[in-house]
Write a structure and sequence with these properties.
The chain is an alpha/beta fold. It has ten helices and 16 strands. Helix 1 packs parallel to helix 3.
Length: 367
C-alpha cells in the first residue's frame, strides 16, 4: 500500500469577500489555489495511493467572526456552529474542493483545532463541517483530534498546531469547556484569544495589516512615527486589558499560584522564541524524529544537532516580515508532505505551492 500525507495549517478562512466590499477580517483569497493543490496531489498519487489530508489548526479564523454584530467572548455550542457556518458559506470553492477530495474511499481527513478554531472541539461545529464536506458514510473518514494537541503517527512523527508552546494561547485539554450558572456549556478560551477578541480585532478593522506583520513589537515601534494615534490607542488598550485580566483578574492569580512551578520553569528558566520552544519540545520526547507544527506563520525546515527535524508549515496569509533574518514579504502557500520509500521510511518535505500559471485573477477589493 502506498500513502501520502499532505499537511496544511493557518489558512485563516474568514467569512469571505464580496466584489467591491472590503472585509478587513478576511485573510484567505486562495480558494482556487487550494483546490488546485488538492487536485494536483490526487492526480500525482493515482488510484492506488491513499492520501491523508491533515488540517493542522487555524484553518478557520473563528475568532474574527461576529455573531449579532459583536465578537462573542462566551462561546456556546450554538454560537460556535453559527460562526463556522458563516465561514463555510463564505468559501464555497474551498468546501467543494474538500468534498470532491473525500469522494474517493482512499482519501481521508484529519483535523486538529488550533487556537483560532478551537470551537471545533465542540460537537455542533464538527457536525456542521461533516454535513458540508463529508455527508453520509463519508464522515467515517474524517477524524477530529480533540483529546490533546498532538496527532501521533506510528513512524515517529508528531503533528501539533503549536499553540500549546506559547503560554498565552495554551488550553487545558481536560477542561476545554466550563458550565455557566444557567447550565450552559461554554468554551474555555485562553487569555491570548480573549486579547484578540477585545483588542486585536477592533484594531484590525481599522488597519487590516496589523496581524500580518512580524514581529508585532518591531512594527509598532516603527509605526509610532507614522501612525502615532493608532499605535498609542492600540498600546493603551493592550495595557489596560493586561492589567485587568492578568494582574487584577482573580482567575489569573488563582491559575498563577496553582501552576507556579511550571510557569517558572517554562517562562523564566526557558529562553528563546517560538522556534526554540518547538525544538525543546522535540528534544524532550523519545522515539520521535520529526515534529511538524504551524501557529507562528513562519515556514521552517530545521534539523537539530540530535538529527531530529522540526518543520513549520507556515501560513497562507500574506505576511510581511520585519525580522532581519527573514526580511521582506512572504506570501505563504507553504505546506508539508510525508511520503514513504520502498521500505516504508517516511520522508518529510516543506513545499511552496505555485500551481498553474494564471494570466489574471479577480481582485475583490483593494487592500
Amino acid at each position: 500500500m502506498s500513502l501520502t500525507r499532505v499537511i496544511l495549517s493557518d489558512l485563516h478562512l474568514g467569512t469571505g469577500s464580496h466584489r467591491g466590499v472590503p472585509n478587513p477580517l478576511e485573510d484567505f483569497p486562495h480558494d482556487d489555489r487550494f483546490s488546485e493543490l488538492l487536485a494536483y496531489h490526487v492526480d500525482q498519487a493515482g488510484p492506488d495511493t491513499d492520501i491523508e489530508l491533515i488540517l493542522n489548526g487555524d484553518i478557520f479564523d473563528l475568532l474574527k467572526v461576529k455573531v449579532g454584530g459583536v465578537w462573542p467572548t462566551e462561546i456556546t455550542n450554538e454560537i460556535a456552529t453559527e460562526k463556522l457556518r458563516q465561514c463555510l458559506e463564505g468559501h464555497p470553492r474551498f468546501v467543494h474542493a474538500i468534498r470532491e477530495f473525500l469522494k474517493s474511499p482512499r482519501h481521508r481527513l484529519t483535523y486538529l483545532p488550533g487556537n483560532h478554531d478551537l470551537d471545533l472541539v465542540m460537537p455542533g461545529p464538527q457536525e456542521l463541517l461533516l454535513r458540508y464536506i463529508a455527508p453520509g458514510d463519508v464522515s467515517e473518514r474524517v477524524h477530529f483530534v480533540t483529546r490533546s494537541d498532538t496527532y501521533y503517527l506510528p513512524e515517529g512523527i508528531q503533528i501539533r498546531h503549536g499553540h500549546q508552546l506559547e503560554r498565552i494561547h495554551r488550553v487545558d485539554y481536560d477542561n476545554l469547556t466550563h458550565t455557566r450558572k444557567d447550565g450552559t456549556e461554554v468554551l474555555t478560551l485562553p487569555w491570548g484569544s480573549l486579547w484578540i477578541l477585545e483588542v486585536m480585532n477592533p484594531a484590525k478593522e481599522q488597519r487590516s495589516h496589523i496581524d500580518r506583520i512580524q514581529p508585532l513589537g518591531r512594527f509598532l515601534a516603527a509605526a509610532l512615527l507614522f501612525d502615532t494615534r493608532f499605535v498609542a490607542r492600540f498600546l493603551w488598550r493592550s495595557t489596560t486589558y493586561f492589567i485587568k485580566e492578568r494582574i487584577f483578574g482573580i482567575r489569573a492569580w488563582r491559575d498563577r499560584i496553582k501552576n507556579f512551578r511550571r510557569i517558572f520553569r517554562e517562562d523564566i528558566l526557558s529562553l528563546g522564541g517560538y522556534d526554540e520552544a518547538a525544538a525543546r519540545a522535540l528534544r524532550q520526547v523519545r522515539g520521535v524524529h520529526t515534529l511538524i507544527v504551524g501557529h507562528s506563520h513562519g515556514p521552517r525546515f530545521r534539523q537539530l544537532e540530535t538529527g531530529q527535524l522540526v518543520v513549520n508549515t507556515g501560513t497562507w496569509m500574506k505576511m510581511i516580515n520585519m525580522d532581519l533574518r527573514y526580511l521582506g514579504q512572504d506570501s505563504g502557500l507553504t505546506y508539508a508532505t510525508i511520503e514513504y520509500d520502498d521500505r516504508g521510511k517516511p520522508i518529510t518535505h516543506l513545499k511552496r505551492w505555485y500551481g498553474t500559471f494564471l494570466p489574471s485573477e479577480t481582485v475583490m477589493h483593494a487592500d
